[in-house]
Amino acid sequence: MKNETPSCNNCRFFIQHYIRRTDYLQKTKCGHCTIRRQMSYKELLKFPFAEGCDKWEQAEPIIKTQEQMYRELEDMYICLKVLISYIYDT
After folding, report:
1. pTM for the whole thing?
2. Which residues contact 49 (CB under 8 A, 6 or more apart)?
3. What's the gap between Cα 40 and its chain centre?
């Protein structure tokens, strides 16, 4: 993987926030950090940081095979069937 310039957007601890549109999810210009550290109000106003912070680590790419994605979809399908059965059986 190539080394990227440190920023919150490519940090392994950054979770991107999204808003739901009619038929897709759209990225917002904010998110949150999973590292529990105290930030001042001024820091929060600038978050996510363009240069990252002292805890920054490179995010690993998520590479999945078609088989892995198929298995995950099958698992989701089974979970949904169970949820639907709970809803209609009660």
Report:
1. 0.55
2. 7, 8, 43
3. 24
The pLDDT, as a whole number, for residue 84 is 92
| Contact between residue 55 and residue 12 where contact means Cβ atoms under 8 Å apart | no
Which three-class secondary structure string do you get for the chain?
Answer: CCCCCCCHHHECCEEEEEEECCCCEEEEEEEEECCCCCCCHHHHHHCCCCCCCCCCCECCCCCCCHHHHHHHHHHHHHHHHHHHHHHHHC
Cα 43 to Cα 79: distance, rounded to the nearest angstrom: 41
pLDDT digits (tens, 9 = 90+) for 12-65: 888 889 999 988 899 888 888 888 677 777 877 777 888 888 888 888 877 778
Residue type, 63: I
